[in-house]
Amino acid sequence: MADVSVLDIELYDQPIGTLTRVAGDRSLFAFNQDYIDTPDRPTLGLFFKDEFGGLRTAFRPVQTQVMPFFSNLLPEGHLRSYLAEQAGVHAGREFFLLWALGQDLPGAITIKPADGENWPPETLQKADTAAPANRRNMLRFSLAGVQLKFSAVENTRSGLTIPASGVGGDWIVKLPSREFTGVPENEFSMMRLAAMLGMDVPRIDLVDIDSIANLPNGTDRFGTRAFVIERFDRHPDKGRIHTEDFAQVFGVYGENKYKKASMRNIASVLAAEGTDEDMRELIRRITFNTLIGNGDMHLKNWSLIYPDQHNAALSPAYDFVSTVPYIPDQGFALNYSRVRDFAAFDEDEMTHLAAKAALPAKMVLDVARQTASDFSEIWRREKNSLPMLDDVRTAIDALLPTLPLMKGNR
Q1: Average of per-residue pLDDT across 148-156
Q2: The whole model's pTM is what?
Q3: Active site residue: 8, 200, 296, 319, which one?
Q4: pLDDT tens across 342-387, in order?
Q5: Beta bridge pairs of residue 213
Q6: 135: pLDDT confidence band, cut at 50, 70 and 90?
Q7: CA angle (328, 388, 285) in 5-degree steps
Q8: Distance of CA 173 to CAs 43, 140, 235, 274, Å?
Q9: Does residue 50 carry a catalytic annotation?
Q10: Do residues 29 and 16 make contact, with C-beta atoms less than 8 angstroms apart?
Q11: Residues 324/307, Cβ–Cβ less than 8 Å
Q12: Fewer CB near the terminus (10 Å): N or C of the chain?
């Protein structure tokens, strides 16, 4: 069995580094010297930026997993288990999952074997004789997330089609949840409300599952409709657009996405790297997700995008779901600044967040108040026409009177 395998890491289809697996199932990332020596190199991620603004180049080897930046390119939960099974790989062997799924990762990163070896690699064939025989034809979907979701292409004549390769899809199809009823309808409704409030929301739709061709075998159905959202990391003319979620920014593994950082940490990054509009948009999104009772805005549900390949901006919105119908006593996924209880997001907490993140306190308070006021009007007008189930309306209506921001808005 070969003791060393090497994967090439490409950014915008150009090699920038390698991920090397050595004996003991350890892996190590290293940048190529050409990338290090290029002054105007495209940004791989803020994680690789040192305290002086330079490029970090020294990294420790990692056992079984890969370093958090690359680990967070892989799917989570049911989707990881499903794809690992199709590939014939243990779900925890991340080096081999990147090998299998590396052609359709989020953002502008692609990963491929340095020696051109086809999937499955000889190393894995010898190590895992129980792997399924069909893994050469495995699905190459690798979109991060717990709910089953797949890259898709749009065919205007026949609806959405899941491509067999999974490469180049320009939509994400999110299937009904195994655990909770009406999640696609919920997410569509929340994203529509966000768009009405002026937030940066990609194109979305709610479609009948029967209209989606070529759904993968083994994909269980728990409802009749699926939520679809256009991928903001793909562009018909520009191709792949690079992104980085905040678990990657902070070097946090997916299992710690509810820990290790707070909204004030995210705000601090945007204060240093983004624009004034990024900061206002962040406060709008924090406020909105508090008002709808979204307790799942963890580190992976906040992302940066690199439209010019160099400078970070807050990405378009995604994964806005009201979770209070499913988990009533849940608070915000991350601390705002000191606390995470929805009802604790008051002007004192906002002022504390602003001070710690170096944001203008007046801007934070003004944006939050205006968002709450606008939401109150839009919610009253639109809640009965949106396709969310009744339990979502009831849960949000019960939450709103408990929130300090809604005083005087109901």
Answers
A1: 77
A2: 0.91
A3: 296
A4: 999 999 999 999 999 999 999 999 999 999 999 999 999 999 999 9
A5: 161
A6: very low
A7: 70
A8: 28, 14, 17, 30
A9: no
A10: no
A11: no
A12: N
User: Is beta strand 303-306 parallel, antiparallel or unpaired with respect to 313-314?
Assistant: antiparallel
- Buried (b) or exposed (e) across 22-33, using 16+ Cβ within 10 A? eeebbbebebee
The single residue listed with the structure tokens 């190529």 is 32
Q: What are phi and psi of 285, to 5 degrees?
A: -70, -40
Q: How far is CA 345 from the centre of its chain?
A: 24
Burial of 401 (0-12, 13-18, 19+ CB in 10 A): exposed
Q: Please report, rounded to a whole number, the percentage of residues in the chain having pLDDT higher than 70.
A: 89
Name the amino acid, one letter, at 82.
Y
Measured CA to CA, the distance from residue 343 to residue 407 in angstroms comes to 12
What type of residue is 306?
Y
Mean pLDDT, all residues of the chain: 89
Cβ-contact 318, 245 below 8 angstroms = no
Burial 274-287 (b: 16+ CB within 10 A, else e): beeebbbbbbbbbb
Q: Give the Cα-Cα-Cα angle 149, 292, 244 (nearest 5 degrees).
A: 45
Task: Determine the residue type at 407.
Answer: K
